[in-house]
Specification:
The protein is of the alpha+beta class. It contains nine helices and 21 strands. About 45% of the residues are buried.
Length: about 375
């Protein structure tokens, strides 16, 4: 990209009277130049509410250069935003810019302009769109005192793969709505990305390596919800994904969990484990159908048994039982399946969120 503007929309969980935007050059090999930026309440499509438009600044300046590997936090911007409202963030990229720090499965439209700086335009004429997050990492809100945050740490199922784009149907999105309806002052932070594994890099950095940057970097984190491990089980072996990777044992994955548990506890953070959902016949008929085998199912069952009874987690969410077809053990329910025997559809994601005991997320005393 060069001499183009990107406009993106994200829904916040808790409300406040000012926001700060975090942009990331985490995977960039060169400095990232932001020529200008703006924030506003989002309208339909790429439009914004012009009356709420505010320029972004960094140290009082209207442009900034982000070093390779670094995030950049904007100055606080006065913007009154209610809980569960959608905020639009626009950035102008004046120089030739590689799309390096990208969340590819964003399930949200990024609008990309033709040549020019359009960060202040109410309407936005997009030359192209992507369903990915480009450089936009976080939106911080000055929430009410004693607010806390939950970080959802996972893979494509927490990332919302297969959910309807631009509809906020990821299961953590539904949790955010439930928390607001219950008058809980709790921010929801989704730190999931499709393909993530506990032990091994692949479509991104493994969970053990990204724990500090993706969990501890957030303010006021009280709880982490871990739902990860199915890709550790499914990726290796005779398929078109990572055929040369060594198949981990259930104990290997459990050891990884224990590391994450210990690191969370060392920082005074509760950690809740979610069981791995059914995946029988995942990607059947595709070159990747080796993702599932009966032998891999045994690993999933053993891992889930430890999550439920191992005593390591501060709480457990049993999504396996919620999503399993009662007539076909090991299979995802047809009415919750988006079609690949692995990922839920919109109804499935809502069913997951509805099954969560909110007291488990932050403890019964909350």
């Amino acid at each position: 990209m060069e001499n183009q503007t990107v406009r993106q929309v994200a829904r916040i969980s808790v409300g406040g009277n000012s926001v700060r935007v975090v942009l990331s050059n985490a995977f960039g090999e060169k400095p990232l130049t932001i020529g200008a930026g703006s924030v506003a309440m989002a309208g339909k499509g790429g439009e914004i509410d012009q009356a709420t438009l505010k320029p972004l600044t960094w140290g009082g300046k209207s442009s900034v250069v982000v070093p390779p590997g670094a995030p950049i936090l904007s100055d606080p911007i006065a913007l009154s935003a209610e809980a569960l409202s959608e905020i639009s963030v626009s950035i102008f990229l004046p120089k030739k810019t590689a799309l390096s720090s990208v969340h590819w499965d964003g399930v949200q439209t990024a609008y990309i302009s033709g040549p020019g700086n359009f960060t202040s335009d109410a309407a936005f004429k997009a030359d192209s769109t992507l369903k990915s997050r480009l450089f936009l990492s976080d939106i911080w809100v000055d929430a009410a005192p004693k607010s806390e945050a939950i970080v959802f740490f996972g893979d494509s199922i927490t990332d919302g793969n297969c959910s309807t784009p631009d509809a906020n149907n990821r299961w953590p999105d539904h949790i955010a709505k439930r928390l607001q309806e219950a008058n809980r002052k709790v921010a929801v932070v989704n730190e999931a990305f499709s393909g993530n594994r506990v032990l091994t890099d692949g479509m991104g950095v493994n969970a053990l390596a990204r724990f500090d940057s993706d969990i501890l970097s957030h303010p006021k984190v009280a709880t982490v919800v871990l739902m990860m491990g199915i890709n550790d089980i499914g990726w290796p072996g005779e398929n078109a994904i990572t055929p040369d990777d060594k198949q981990p044992t259930a104990q290997d994955i459990i050891t990884g969990y224990k590391q994450l548990i210990d690191r969370a506890h060392a920082h005074g953070i509760r950690i809740v484990g979610a069981t791995l959902t059914p995946f029988a016949e995942t990607f059947k008929g595709l070159p990747t159908e080796g993702y599932y085998t009966p032998e891999k199912e045994k690993i999933r069952v053993a891992v889930n048994q430890w999550i439920r009874t191992g005593g390591g987690f501060d709480g457990v969410i049993d999504f396996d039982k919620v999503m399993e077809d009662p007539a076909k053990p090991g299979y995802l329910r047809d009415d919750y399946d988006c079609g690949d025997n692995l990922h839920p559809n919109d109804a499935g994601y809502k069913a997951m969120a509805d099954a969560v005991d909110l007291d488990v997320l932050l403890g019964s005393a909350k």
